[in-house]
Amino acid sequence: MACRSRSSKPLVFLLVPLFFAASVYGQSTAFSQDPTLRPILKAEKEGRLVDAEKLLQAAIQDAETQPAASPRLSMLLNHLARIDNRMGRYADAVALAKRFLDMDDRLYGAESPEVARDLNNLGMYYQAAGEEAAACQALERALAVARKNPGDGWLHATGNLSAYYITHHRAADAKPLLTEAVEFCDAQPEPRAYVACTGLRTQLANIYRGEGHSGYGEEIVSRDAEQTVGVLQDPFAQVRALDALARQYEQDESYDLAETTYRQAIALIEKMPWFKDDPTATAPEFLNLGRLFEKEGLNVQAEDAYKRALDLEEASAGPGRPGHAESLHAFVVPLAALYRTQGRVSDLEPIL
Question: What does pTM read for this prediction?
Answer without folding.
Answer: 0.64
